[in-house]
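[Automated response] Your request has been received and processed.

Submitted sequence:
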Amino acid sequence: MTDTPFTADLTLHPAFELIEHRHIEALSMDVLISQHVKTGAMHYHLAHPSDENAFLVGFRTQPMDSKGEAHILEHVALCGSEKFPVRDPFFSMIKRSLNTFMNAMTAADWTAYPYATQNKNDYFNLLAVYLDASFFPNIHPLDFAQEGIRVELDENDKPQFKGIVFNEMKGAMSGEIDQLYHTVAHHLFPTTTYHYNSGGDPADIPDLTHHELVEFHQSHYHPSNSVIMSFGNIPVAETQAKIHEDALIQFEAGKKHVSRPEKRLSAPISAVDTYTADEAGPDQTHHVVAWLLPSITDPKQRLALRLLEGVLVEHAGSPLRAYLDSHPLGKAPSPLLGLDDSHYEMVFYTGLRGSNPEHAEAVEQGIIDLLKEVASKPIDDETIETILHQIEIDQRHIGGDSMPYGLNLMLEGFSTAIHDGNPIDVWEVDEHLQWLREQVKDAQWLPNLIKTHLLNNQHRVRVTMMPDSEKTARLAAAEQTRLDTIAMDLSAGDKAILKQQALDLAARQAAPDDLSLLPKVGLEDVPTDISFKQGTQKQVNLSGQESTLFEYEAGTNGLYYYQVIVPLTDAIGNQDTSELPVNEVINHPLLPIYLSLLSELGTDSLSAHEMQAKQAAHSSGVTARISQRTNIDDSQAISSYFVVATRALNRKPEAIDLLKEVMEHSVFSEHDRIKEILQQRQAGWQSNLAGSGHSYAMQTASRGMSRQAQLEYVRSGLPALNALKDFLTHASTDDAQWDKLATSLMDLHQRLISLPKHAVIICEAEQTERLSNLIVDSWKDSQAPKIAEKITNSDAGIEDNIPSEFAELQLDAALNGETDAVKAIESGVALDVEDLAWLVPTNVYHNASAYTVPAADHPDTAALMVLAPYLRNGYLHSAIRERGGAYGGGAGYDANACAFKFFSYRDPQCAETFAHFDASIEWLLNEPQTDEQLEEAILGIISGMDKPGSPAGEAVKACFANLHHRGVDWQRKMRAAILSVTVADLQRVAKQYLQGQDHVRAVLAPYDKEEAVKELGFNVCKIKS
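Generated structure:
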């Protein structure tokens, strides 16, 4: 984000006419809504001082089947176009660009192609490629076969289905939450596009033909059916000139697909279905109750329903959320909970997970009764004010740390624009908030909303989803029956055609592309220096100790960001490191659970629900985390800090005392609340396995390569999930376990809060002094000195009461940070651990392989960093994705694990992929390599390093970079080293660290592949049901 004054040039290109111009003070931006005169294409431009410019082109895509045409078209459109007839311009541009974001995404009723970059030349290069890909794609039949679906004959002449989207959706639809969501939508929307799976159902994808895909593009990807958005400081007319000249000028006005309201039910309905599970036992059923609500295009109605959602489920103290959290007939609230405003018509979800089928009616009736009770009396002013406060924080918070800020803003308004609403209503909520404040003065207005939209709304659906341990096998059998039918009908001529298609596809995949057709930026476009946020350090007294207060001034849009930092390994300032609990806290088996519980519980004067309400009234909530990195010069040493954080509006100084209250007054005595949170943690963790499979595979493969890698695997990886499940089972029949857990958590908590503290404040310049003084004042009456004295005089250790399931999560003695143990293994030598397969609820593979490499400050690190994208770009992407059919694959250097990792995800193959990992090394060492490939790999690393965050995020990043000894000078040194890497360096490090070296393999595999992975030499572990 630039700090220089910015005056936006708001002159439109003559091919566009202005519909509306609005300045939005709270977001420092001007919105220009214009329409292309000839085609009717809508363009929304967000003029903003940021030099991270962003763009997206999107289309209303409303399939009326589940063959996946919208999703497959999104893939195939990026496989070559009229001006850029190369096989994969999208992937090639990732390599030839300084983008900070490039992607394409298919939602239920729209498809969008967004990107962002800080380089103006790059912005227009990418604009040319994106416009041509979306409006003029080649849609080659072989690209459809590769990306979508094809029939291929195996070595025995037996037909099989292949295709990247086919495999991607097999992986996606193996997740129980995806199955739940699509089943509810199927019943809630009987006649509109949401009835179907726009991503494609693996049972229906094989029905899609190339001809249907071409027709879908012609009918949906027309300017009249598009929404175009741009953001940043590039003048709007320059972007519009390219849009007009490169694309829109070639079209006449065409058909626009209009969102259609759903035919309303005359009475509530219920449905029963099943989801795939390894074992179908008790307490695994989902009950969901969903209501169809009005359209999102009325901004006041939308905000009113957001208020209704907040009143019911905003935090653990909200009535519906509290009711579900402690419900006797289930283990946790449904993952479908709250308002969904992503469709044309909104949906309100509620329900339970971890229940049983026979409770369906009781669960639904209980929810109705609870809503009747809430609607029977006025909602108190404090509750309403809390939700209005949360809406304001959400609007003012500038995100952009995971996705660029401008893209975040555009996507927030995009679904409104796609459905013919005005997205300004999403970005400028002050006027509508004022209206809302007027409405709530009528005490009956909010209870009436609950009655109108929930209690008296007949379009209500109850869905019960039960586990089915045989469903996966039935789906596989149905697919096989279909293939057998195809096999019976195949003539010799048909087989010859299929074999020829396979040969043609292989030839197309192997043919070198003429990448000179594509625009590019080069190393000469790379900024000469890095952006590193500078702050000041002030010596203060916090809780009776000399402490450092880090102050950062940033454009935070009326918010402040406050964090307390507790060093666990490295002293800050003049602190004595001998006081620090180097290992007892870091190695503690309950640390991840403690972090997830800390801000969710009550205090010595407030219950958990009261404390949640207090947090929501004054802040965005309080979070606790550990910031931990492997040392730059030693794989067996780490630097670690305990961090408690919040953000709040400038007018809410109460958040400063609130954070201290969480740290000093939290108690672990509400066993029921702890149980609720841990059950929710376990259920959510289990549900997310399929989506993060490659991350767990890489974590498993590298678990013996550094102390940090071992900690992450044992404490937060798959062994920890099994331990949590075992504990919950044990504690369900032995209440004493909750006492044991609570005592152990309190011991850990006391140890942590007794330690010296430091603080970070990030805010606008005029707020710094006031907020800094408030921080110092808040810690004057701290309990920490007394607690520290008590601990010093006690003989008890903080690991005395740990429940056995967690205590058994042992760290290897060589990697637990004890001095004698570290001496026992040479620095840089990894533990000898076996190849491991974890069987999980999925129907595809997630593969990983890890090699031991040096820590971050080693002279070879830069070459290893560049090696990863070099191998991906030059070999792995083509072998694993294009030819192998996986959704993705690549390599990475991990400075925390001190590992070089290969990975693939949503992969139909296992053994073949590990062979590709090895073959990529041989390709580098034995095939001719080019400087252009090297430049592409370096560009990728540098654009990742230069990716800007939000104003607050940049400050937090800089502060912790310094604390972890990776400050601006170290980053400059690393950047220079990366820019000077040669192909010879890549070959040298590949030979030294990878070729023929010991390595560890890991895979997350389907339950029914146990024998197959054993044959490949893996030891097998299972996620317990």
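Summary generated for your ticket: Residues 845 and 956 are 36 Å apart (CA to CA). DSSP finds 37 helices and 28 strands in the chain.
If you did not submit this request, please reply to this message.
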